[in-house]
Amino acid sequence: MRNTFLAFYLALKELLRNRGRFILVGLVIALITLLVLFIAALGEGLANGNRQYVANLDAQLIVFLEKSDYIISSSRLETNTARSVRRVDGVADAGPIYTSSTEIVSLPKPLKVSLLGADPGRPGMPQILDGRAFRSGEARETVIDRNVALRSGIKVGDEIEIRSTQGTDDKFFKLKVVGLVDGQSYFFQPTIFVPPSTWEQIRPQSESDLASDTPYPNIVAVRLTDPSQQDIVAQRLVANVPNIEVADIATTINNIPGYSAQQGTVQTQGFFTLLIGVLVIGGFFQIQILQKVPQVGVLKAIGSSNAVVGVAAVIQIILVTAFGVAIGGLLTYLFSLGFPPTIPLVFNGPRSLIAIALLLGIGPAGGLVSIIYAVRIEPLKALRLG
Prior knowledge:
Helix content is 50%, strand content 19%. The chain is α+β, with helices and mostly antiparallel strands and 386 residues long. The radius of gyration is 30 Å and the shape is elongated. It has two domains: 2-51 and 260-382, no CATH class; 79-242, no CATH class.
């Protein structure tokens, strides 16, 4: 207990006497913290923008066209696939999902959005937060996600106009906003939902597609009676429904084009930033120890143990790192308040918590060499008497 108190006293005394030097390295750590947290937030934001809709599906399995490699845009199922899926034992419900993209032009600046078709009340249609669900059939009604509302100011009850290229002509369609759902970004775009029949009429399509008015779903979202039976029900689906393949939500997300490569790039950037932090902190405290070798020698000569010297160095490193991380976290929060919703930054994900924990750990990790060096200093050699 006495040794711990003495180590804390020595560490705090040196921090106060050389506060300018330690504040400077603390600010360097703050900048590293700022960079790491922004990389973590960017990774979470990009991941959300790519996977948000799929990750929030009220389903456990996704049905694709056979040999589509679990890629949503490459899959196009028959119209009766959802009905066939519902008849399989273990399936509670199944909803077809139709995917496309369009552009809202009834705004000062056009907004590109994902255009998704889904059946109200079935898997694939998110829970309504405000307003009501659209009517089925060919109703010219839409439900928008919160991202659309944040970027455009559109509210429930407003009317929007979208533009779709059909054949070689641009056609315009008006839709009434009847409901609002939570963030449901799909392929980095905010999302609007419409009934399947309406989706078929207003989606962008080629000249050959104009001859057909039958909507073909890309995928079918499957909700199970018992979610723990995923593998068994997946095998039943493949055995009973022709020309399909089945994946869980995690597999579907990992097969979104570019998702894995994007996340790998962001994680690599975060790793090297943390590595730079370890080297910077390690280098600073190593120089700090080298500059005070005579003082450490005096401490040991008058009876201070290696434990006191080592604990004092550890306390210094922890306090300086905590100071830098706290300042960096505060700066990150202040900067985040000024960013528009179009920038994909998410600070409330597990990435941010992991980043903070790693940042608090890089101090002792970086200063490990200096701590070892401090406890190995020989008093006589430090005082040039040996």
